[in-house]
Design brief:
GO terms for molecular function: RNA binding; zinc ion binding. It comes from Zostera marina (Eelgrass). Keywords: Repeat. By secondary structure, this protein is mainly alpha-helical. Helices cover 67% and strands 4% of the residues. The chain has 44 helices and six strands. It has a six-stranded mixed beta sheet with strand order 2-1-3-4-5-6, with helices on one face. Bound molecules: zinc ion (2 copies).
Length: 826
C-alpha cells in the first residue's frame, strides 16, 4: 500500500534521479536541423501530452528523419503510461542512446518507478559494458535500484565504483548512498557518510541530505533520532521547506509507534501552519497522508476538507487510510471514492487499485463490477500493473475465480503479486488442486517467490488440505532454500502439512527446530497432528509442555486435545481438560468438543454416562453429538440408544446418509433383518444415496484415484489380480469377510464381491504393486473407512510385512504388523 508514497517520492527532489523532460526540450530543440523536424516534433509532443500515444507512434514511424528529441519524446510517453517494454524497445533501437548518460538514467529510473529494480540494475550493467561511462545520475539510479531491492552487497559495489570514478563526493551520490544504506537497514553507514562531510564543505549538508537522514532514521524505526535530527537541522539554519516537510511527514507515517507519530505530526503540523506552508499542495497531501497512515483518517479528512485540494494524491492517501482501517470505515471509504468520482478529480492507477482492494476485502462483487467498468472506461485496464493486479485480487477474493483468471489473462507478464492473488483466491475458496496447479505454473514461469511468506504458507496449506505429500516436500525444500521457514506462519503451515499427510514425525522435527519462535498455533498444530495420527499420549504431553512454557490454549487446541484423549482412551484426563476449558481458560465448549466428550465416554463403553451428559444439557443436542453417540453404539452394540440417536439425526440432518448406514449396520449385527429392510426403505424413499466411496494415492507427480468396482485405472487388470491374491492370502491367515458392511442387497455373494472391490482395497492393491517395500502405502479416502476394509488392512500389513497409512474423513489409521493405531475405534 505504498503506492501514494511511491508517487510522492517521484515528485520530491531527493528521488528525482532523472532530469526533467523540459531539459530535453530546451536542449534539443535548439539543435534541431530543420524547421520541418521542429514542427513535427512539436506535433509529436502535443500528441503525447494528450495521451494519444498510438497516433504519436504512427507519426513517429512516418518521420523521414528523427532527431534525439523525437526519440526521447516517444520513450517518455511510453514510460508515463506505464508501457515499459515498449519504451525499452525504443530505447534499445535509438541511435542516440549512448550520446549521453541522461537517457540511461531516465530509463533506469522508469524501471525503478514501476518496481522493477532488478531490470534497472541489468540496464546499469549493460550501460557499463556497451554504453557511456557512469556518472552521478546513473550511479544515483543504480543505488536507488539496490535500495528498492534491498541488495546490500550490490549497493556496496556501486559505492566502491562511485569512489573509483571520483563521484563519491558528489552530493547527489551521497544522498543516494544515505538512502540506500537506510533502506537496507545499515543506518550506521548512513550516519558515518553524513558526519564525514568535512565542516569546510558543510554546504553539502543541504535539505536533500538532511531529509535523507531523517527519513533513514524514521524508516529504521528510530522516531526519536529522526525528531532530534529535525530539530538539529533547524538549529543549523537549514529551515524545513516545502520539499523537506512532505518527505519528513511521509517518512514518519511509516514508524510503527502511533502515539509517537501523532505527537510528532502535531508538532510539524503546528510548524506548517506557522510557517505558511499550509497552502502548499505537496505539504497538504503529506499531512493528510500522515494522519491517514497513523490510523487517524478522521483528522486527515478534516485537513483535506479545509484545504479542498484538487490534487488526487491527498484524496488517495485518505482513501488508503480508510481502506486500511478495514470494516470500521467501510462506508467512509466508499463514499469518499464516490465523492472523488463526482468531483471530477483525475483518478489515477492508485485510486483504482485502492478502491479495488477495498471492494475485494469487503467482498462486494457488484461494486467490483462497477469499478471494473470505470477502470476500462478510463483506460487503466491494461498496462497498469497495480490496477491489473488489484483487479485479479478483487475477483479472487470475492470468489469469482473465472473473472480473476480472465483478468489475469490480460496481464502480459504476471508478477508474483498477481500469481499470489490467484493462488490465494483458489485456496480460500477451497479449490486447492487448482491453487497448486497455478503454483506449479508460476514456478515454471521462473517468477521468484523470494521472501514471500504469505504465498509459502498458502501453498503449504493447500498441500495439507488435499494431503499431497510429494509436492508438500518439494515446497518445503523451496521454502528452506528461499529462507522463509523462519517466519512462524510458514513453519506452522509446514507442521500442519506434514501432520495432515500422516508424517507427524516430520512435523515434530520442524516443531523442535523452531526453538523459541513458537506461538499458540504452533503448539496446537502439533497437538492436533498427534491426535489425528492416533498418538494421543504425545498430544497430551505436548499440551502439558505448552502450558508450562506459558502459552495459552485456544478453541482449536481443545478440539485436538479432547480428540487425542478420546482416541488414546484417557477418559479421566479428558474429563478434567473439558472442565477446565471454561473455568480456567474462558473458552466456551462448542459442538466439536462435546462430540469428542461423547466419543471419549462411548469408546470406554460408558454409554449411559454419555447419554446422561446429553440429557443434562451440558452439551448442545446437535448433530455432531448424536453422531458420536451413534458411532459408540455401533461399537458397543447398543441398539436402543442407537435408535434414539438415529431418530434425532433423521430429523436434524435428514439428507445425511451416514446415520442410515450406521443404523443398518447396527441392526444387521444384531440380526434384526426386518429393521435393516425398514431403514433401507426409508433411505430410498427419501432419495438418499450413500456418497460414493473414493480413495486416492499420490505417486510422484500423479494422483491415482479409485472408486468401488471401477475399472478406469490404466493398470486395472494388474490391480484386480493383486486384490484377488491379497484376499486369498489374508483369508489363509484368518481374515473373515464381514458382510455387515456391504450396503447393496445382492445376496451374500454379491455383498462379498462388492466388499472385495471397495475403493480402499483397490488402492492398497495398487500400492502393493507400485510402492517400494521400504515405504508405507499411503491411501486417502473421502469417507470413513469401512469395518471390513479396516480389518483386511490389518491382515495385509501382517501377511505382506508392509506399512499402510490410511487417512479417512475422520483420522489417520497407521496399520503395522496386524494392528491399527486407532485401536479399532473410529
Ligand atoms: Zn470397505
Ligand atoms: Zn484404524
Amino acid at each position: 500500500m505504498n503506492v501514494v508514497a511511491m508517487k510522492r517520492q517521484q515528485q520530491l527532489p531527493i528521488f528525482r534521479l532523472c532530469l526533467p523532460m523540459q531539459f530535453f526540450y530546451a536542449h534539443y530543440v535548439h539543435y534541431s536541423h530543420t524547421s520541418q523536424i521542429l514542427t513535427t516534433n512539436l506535433n509529436l509532443k502535443s500528441l503525447c501530452q494528450t495521451n494519444r500515444i498510438e497516433n504519436a507512434r504512427v507519426l513517429f514511424d512516418q518521420m523521414p528523419t528523427k532527431d534525439e528529441y523525437s526519440w526521447n519524446t516517444l520513450i517518455t510517453a511510453y514510460v508515463r503510461s506505464g508501457r515499459l517494454s515498449e519504451s525499452l524497445h525504443l530505447f534499445n533501437n535509438s541511435p542516440h542512446r549512448d550520446s549521453t548518460t541522461i537517457s540511461w538514467s531516465f530509463i533506469m529510473s522508469a524501471h525503478i518507478r514501476y518496481g522493477r529494480g532488478d531490470e534497472a540494475l541489468q540496464l546499469f550493467l549493460r550501460m557499463r559494458r556497451e554504453g557511456p561511462k557512469p556518472d552521478m545520475y546513473t550511479l544515483g539510479a543504480s543505488l536507488r535500484a539496490c535500495a528498492v531491492c534491498c541488495y546490500s552487497e550490490t549497493g556496496r559495489q556501486v559505492h566502491a565504483l562511485a569512489f573509483k570514478t571520483l563521484f563519491g563526493d558528489d552530493g547527489f551520490v551521497i544522498a543516494g548512498l544515505i538512502d540506500f544504506y537506510s533502506k537496507c537497514r545499515c543506518i550506521n553507514e548512513a550516519v558515518t557518510l553524513f558526519s564525514d562531510i568535512p565542516d569546510s564543505e558543510h554546504r553539502k549538508r543541504n535539505h536533500v541530505l538532511w531529509a535523507a537522514m531523517i527519513i533513514g532514521h524514521a524508516q529504521n524505526g528510530n522516531a526519536i533520532g529522526a525528531l532530534t535530527l529535525f530539530k538539529t537541522m533547524k538549529a543549523n539554519d537549514v529551515l524545513p521547506n516545502q520539499f523537506i516537510l512532505p518527505t519528513v511527514l511521509t517518512a514518519f507515517s511509516s514508524v510503527e509507534h502511533l502515539t509517537m507519530v501523532r505527537g510528532f505530526g502535531a508538532q510539524v503540523h503546528a510548524y506548517i501552519v506557522r510557517s505558511g506552508y499550509y497552502k502548499n499542495n505537496f505539504v497538504q497531501c503529506a499531512l493528510v497522508d500522515m494522519y491517514a497512515k497513523s490510523g487517524d483518517p478522521i483528522t486527515g479528512g478534516k485537513v483535506l476538507q479545509i484545504t479542498d485540494t484538487e490534487d488526487v494524491v491527498g484524496w488517495n492517501s485518505l482513501l488508503i487510510g480508510y481502506v486500511k482501517s478495514g470494516r470500521e470505515h467501510e462506508e467512509e471509504a466508499w463514499s469518499l471514492f464516490t465523492k472523488m468520482h463526482c468531483k471530477g478529480l483525475e483518478l489515477d492507477e492508485y485510486t483504482y487499485s485502492t478502491v479495488l482492494s477495498h471492494v475485494g476485502s469487503i467482498g462486494h462483487v457488484e461494486k467490483g463490477r462497477v469499478i471494473h467498468g470505470l477502470v476500462t472506461k478510463a483506460g487503466y485496464d491494461k498496462n497498469y500493473r497495480h490496477v491489473s493486479n488489484a483487479m485479479v485480487d478483487m475477483y479472487a477474493k470475492v470468489g469469482r475465480l473465472d473473472s480473476a483468471f480472465q483478468a489475469s489473462d490480460e496481464i502480459r507478464h504476471m508478477d508474483v503479486v498477481g500469481w499470489t492473488s490467484l493462488i490465494a483466491g483458489c485456496a480460500r475458496h477451497l479449490s486447492h488442486e487448482k491453487a497448486l496447479k497455478i503454483f506449479r505454473e508460476m514456478m515454471r514461469s521462473q517468477i521468484g517467490i523470494e521472501n514471500d511468506e504469505f504465498l509459502a504458507a498458502t501453498v503449504l496449506s493447500s498441500c495439507a488440505a488435499i494431503a499431497v505429500l510429494y509436492l508438500g516436500r518439494q515446497i518445503h525444500a523451496i521454502i528452506i532454500h528461499i529462507g522463509v521457514l523462519s517466519f512462524v506462519t510458514v513453519a506452522n503451515s509446514a507442521v500442519t502439512m506434514y501432520a495432515k499427510c500422516g508424517c507427524v514425525d516430520d512435523s515434530r522435527r520442524i516443531f523442535d527446530s523452531m526453538e523459541n519462535n513458537k506461538d499458540a498455533i504452533t503448539w496446537t498444530a502439533l497437538i492436533v497432528g498427534y491426535a489425528q495420527n492416533g498418538r494421543g499420549n504425545e498430544s497430551v504431553e505436548i499440551y502439558r509442555t505448552m502450558l508450562q512454557t506459558g502459552h495459552r490454549p485456544d478453541y482449536i487446541t481443545f478440539i485436538g486435545l479432547l480428540f487425542a484423549c478420546s482416541h488414546a482412551g484417557l477418559v479421566e484426563e479428558g474429563k478434567v481438560y473439558f472442565s477446565t476449558m471454561e473455568s480456567v481458560h474462558n473458552i466456551k465448549p462448542g459442538a466439536e468438543h462435546c462430540g469428542s466428550m461423547i466419543d471419549l465416554l462411548g469408546r470406554a463403553g460408558r454409554i449411559q454416562e454419555a447419554v446422561h451428559m446429553i440429557e443434562s444439557g451440558v452439551t448442545p443436542p446437535d448433530a455432531t453429538v448424536w453422531k458420536s453417540l451413534l458411532a459408540a453404539c455401533r461399537v458397543h452394540r447398543e441398539v436402543e440408544i442407537a435408535e434414539k440417536a438415529a431418530e434425532n439425526l433423521f430429523e436434524l440432518e435428514p439428507n445425511d446418509a451416514v446415520p442410515y448406514v450406521l443404523m443398518s449396520n447396527i441392526y444387521s449385527t444384531a440380526g434384526k433383518w426386518s429393521e435393516v429392510g425398514r431403514v433401507r426403505k426409508l433411505m430410498r424413499s427419501r432419495g438418499i444415496s450413500k456418497e460414493l466411496g473414493c480413495s486416492w494415492m499420490e505417486m510422484g507427480k500423479e494422483v491415482h484415484v479409485f472408486r468401488a468396482e471401477d475399472r478406469i485405472h490404466p493398470r486395472t487388470a494388474e490391480v484386480y489380480s493383486k486384490v484377488e491374491e491379497m484376499m486369498e492370502r489374508i483369508t489363509e491367515a484368518g481374515y473373515v469377510v464381514d458382510n455387515d458392511w456391504a450396503t447393496h442387497e445382492k445376496g451374500r455373494e454379491g455383498r462379498e464381491r462388492s466388499l472385495k472391490y471397495h475403493s480402499e482395497k483397490l488402492a492398497v492393491g495398487f500400492g502393493l504393486i507400485s510402492v517400494s517395500k521400504e515405504e508405507a502405502i499411503r491411501v486417502f479416502k473421502n469417507l470413513r473407512v469401512c469395518g471390513d476394509c479396516h480389518n483386511a488392512m490389518k491382515f495385509v500389513t501382517k501377511v505382506y510385512e508392509r506399512r499402510i497409512v490410511l487417512r479417512d474423513s475422520n483420522c489417520f489409521h497407521h496399520f503395522n504388523d496386524g494392528v491399527c493405531s486407532c485401536r479399532d475405534y473410529w
